[in-house]
Design brief:
The structure holds two protein chains of two kinds. Chain A is mostly helical. Chain A contains five helices and three strands; from the N terminus they run ββαααβαα. Chain A is elongated, with a radius of gyration of 15 Å. In chain B, helix 1 crosses helix 2. In chain B, about 30% of the residues lie in helices and about 25% in strands. In chain B, strand 9 and strand 10 form a beta hairpin. Classes of the chains: A mainly alpha, B alpha+beta. Strand 1 of chain A pairs antiparallel with strand 11 of chain B, so a sheet runs across the interface.
């Protein structure tokens, strides 16, 4: 049956806090995650699947902003983020998996741990 | 479909105080303005009704009458500037929002998706007609419109929707479809097979492709796991449908 989904009704289990990243930061983070996933020794399967989900989030965040820009625009202005940033919404477990990547650049680490 | 019968509201800042709109001034402005708007089957005129002066809009099978007092009251609520120019602009915008006639729908109608209810839970097809300033107005069959005419108008609108130029933009694994004006974007969904073919050409989508639809916004399409992640944090109402469910959507 066709059905409508109210906003954010899909994920009752995990709140995904926004992390505001620009296009270069998103591309850099995706490259870091891909390199980590494909370099030996590979991460444990649970961690790998969580990181795959973060990659998906990095790819859909911009499309989401394109689809529904209005509330994001208000939040971006209110928080004083640059125009090109979009909120990357990741859960605590996803954040933990990303922060566990050994060669995660410090600036990305800072951006991901900033929730304002 | 949201319409603003008296034009766009003024900016939020600075705060505005509602100004009373004088019905006599509305009648004066209408007497000057309306004769200039007649033509191409449209007749607008100031008439005397049982409830005082009124504006008549007559076009094809449609006839709309609103008293000058009611118009003045609605203009006041819409914070229309209570000046001659402000009233003239609002009156012209109101006339531009007049109901779409069957002839216009048959000639210019395009099928797009719209919410079927005020709570934005389901979408359905609706015939819209472009008017001035790229504004789309919905067509509603009149009480006298027979089923055969309704079917013909809807069929023609579906055919026209297939010819609306829609740009595809790729964001990661998501295909975004946008038309100009953006409110026409959902017209692309009359042919989901074409969307699938375009996506496949770019290495996207597949048998589990889902469409993410918010009437009036671009259409997004992606494989299920990607689409699920996209809508999981959606900030606005949307409909999330597997591509082959699109053909089940009904008319509003």
């Amino acid at each position: 049956m066709p059905g409508s989904i109210p906003p954010a009704a899909h994920t009752p289990a995990a709140y995904r806090a926004p992390r505001w990243l620009g296009p270069q930061q998103r591309a850099q983070l995706a490259a870091v995650i891909r390199r980590y996933l494909h370099s030996p020794p590979p991460p444990a399967p649970p961690t790998a699947s969580v990181l795959e989900a973060v990659l998906t989030e990095l790819e859909v965040a911009s499309a989401r902003d394109h689809m529904w820009p209005h509330r994001t625009l208000i939040a971006r202005i209110a928080a004083g983020h640059p125009n090109e940033t979009v909120p990357i919404r990741i859960s605590d477990s996803e954040l933990t998996a990303v922060l566990s990547i050994p060669d995660l650049p410090g600036e990305l680490r800072d951006a991901l741990t900033c929730t304002t | 479909m949201t319409t603003r019968p008296f034009g766009h509201p003024r900016p939020v800042l600075p705060p505005t105080r509602r100004q009373p709109v004088d019905p006599h001034l509305v009648a004066e402005v209408a007497a000057e303005l309306l004769p200039k708007l007649n033509g191409d089957g449209l007749v607008v005129k100031l008439v005397d009704s049982d409830n005082g002066p009124a504006v008549d809009i007559i076009e094809d099978e449609r006839h709309l009458r609103e008293t000058v007092c009611a118009l003045a009251r609605e203009m006041e609520h819409a914070q229309v500037p209570a000046t001659r120019d402000g009233i003239a602009e609002a009156l012209a915008a109101w006339i531009d929002h007049r109901p779409v006639t069957d002839r216009q729908a048959r000639t210019f109608g395009v099928a797009v998706l719209d919410w079927t209810d005020s709570t934005c839970t389901q979408v359905g097809w609706r015939v819209v007609v472009p008017r001035s300033h790229n504004r789309l107005l919905p067509w509603t069959p009149s009480a006298d419109t027979d089923d055969r005419t309704v079917h013909q108008i809807r069929s023609a609108a579906l055919g026209r929707a297939a010819t609306v130029p829609v740009r595809m933009r790729i964001e990661g694994q998501v295909a975004l479809y946008t038309a100009t004006p953006v409110e026409l974007s959902t017209a692309v969904l009359v042919d989901p097979w074409r969307m699938l073919a375009e996506m496949a050409y770019h290495g996207l989508g597949g048998p589990t492709t889902h469409m993410i639809i918010t009437p009036g916004r671009p259409v997004a399409a992606a494989e299920q796991h990607v689409a699920e992640r996209l809508v999981a944090e959606a900030s606005e109402p949307h409909q999330y449908l597997r591509w082959n469910m699109i053909s089940d959507l009904r008319w509003v």
